[in-house]
Specification:
Helix content: over 70%
Number of helices: 3
Distance between the termini: 55 Å
Order of helices and strands: HHH
Structural class: mainly alpha
Radius of gyration: 15 Å
Shape: elongated
Length: 82
């Protein structure tokens, strides 16, 4: 088994794990963090598939911008509940 295959397998397993943790999280803040982690892992997967442009877009939009908006919305919900 080559090192590249082992890395790809670890990447896929970590992506599945983070997606599952994001969907099954009981707390909203943990789900958002796991969503951001999944987006960063997806960006790494795109880079491994020789598509660095899509990987950069995923990191910037999927993990970065969307994650920041979700965290801001979560903060607004927390301030509203008090």
């Amino acid at each position: 088994m080559s090192l590249e295959f082992a890395f790809d397998l670890l990447l896929v397993l970590t992506m599945v794990w983070s997606a599952w943790r994001s969907l099954s999280a009981t707390r909203l803040d943990r789900a958002i963090v796991m969503f951001i982690v999944f987006g960063l892992l997806m960006a790494l997967a795109w880079a491994r598939l020789s598509a660095p442009d899509i990987g950069l877009a995923e990191a910037a939009i999927g993990a970065g911008l969307t994650g920041a908006l979700l965290l801001d919305a979560y903060g607004a919900l927390q301030r509203r509940e008090i």
